Amino acid sequence: MKQRTFRFEVKNVSKRTVDITSVEKSCGCTEVKAGKATLKSGESTTLTGTLAAQDRIGEFGSTIQVNLSDGSYAQAHVGGKAVNVLQGPTHLDLGETFVDETPASKTFTFLKGEDEEPWDDLRLRSGGLKTNIIRRGNAWLITLTPPRAEETGVFREDISIECWKSGAWESATTIPLTATWKIHSRNVQITPMAAYFGVMKREEEKSVRLKVKTSAGNAVRLVKAEFPVGMIASANLVEDQNQFYLEIRAKSLPLGDGQQSEFLRVLLSTSGNNDWHRIRILGNNRS
Length: 287
What we know:
This protein has strands at about 5-10, 20-25, 30-35, 40, 45-50, 60-70, 75-80, 85, 90-100, 105-110, 120-125, 130-135, 140-145, 150-165, 170-185, 190, 195-200, 205-215, 220-225, 230-240, 245-250, 260-270, 275-285. By secondary structure, the protein is mostly beta strands. The protein has 3 domains: about 5-80, Immunoglobulin-like (Sandwich); about 85-185, Immunoglobulin-like, CATH 2.60.40; about 190-285, Immunoglobulin-like. The strands form 5 sheets. Strands 9, 11, 14, 15, 17, 19, 22 and 23 form an 8-stranded mixed β-sheet that branches. A 4-stranded antiparallel β-sheet has the order 4-2-6-7, with no helix packed on it. A 4-stranded antiparallel β-sheet has the order 8-10-13-12, with no helix packed on it. β6 and β7 form a beta hairpin. It is elongated, with a radius of gyration of 28 Å.
């Protein structure tokens, strides 16, 4: 269900002038306002508003209460039913593979939902993913293949499906989806693949340790570290009780006040094999 508008009238049936002191609603799915603030005896005003499904599925509604200066009030109920335009997963897990190997393709099935807006076809918008769509009646088989990667890490891409009526792309309904996949190294593993610094205060220094493990238990060497722009930090390999760690010391993050993420890239070498690893930096600065 798309956003819908509604309206209803409130009439002053008393013999005196009253003010509308407030208009209350029982659900955040509703916005409403009155046309007049003061009503003389016998006068009416129209309340107009919107009803939006947001993340709801099924029947839902809101009670609107108009409070008047004489202590009385008027109530009305608005409601609707939200249905799916398209039935299928919202998060697409594309699995795991290794550096320099061609990732496997994965197919997801999407079915036509119960939306009242007629549509008969869909298309997918994606950046780096290879896509293929096969239609079978009211079902669409969407196959996604991640690109070949030269570094490890957790990768994410925001994609969208557009449901449309033939010849009317301008009225398409867009459904956002998220695809994720992981790339590993056969030589060195870093866990986790993210460094969380939390809130960084001015002139504060924090360190995070990530576990480093080689496939054959051999020694590992940090060759190079590339920090995102705006991040003041250092990276070193340390050994503690026969366990290697990548220690990241940060004085400033490349992030603003909101929780965001950037990536640190490190080149690790073991037994003559070099692999780039992508590590997500999480946290924010606070002055």
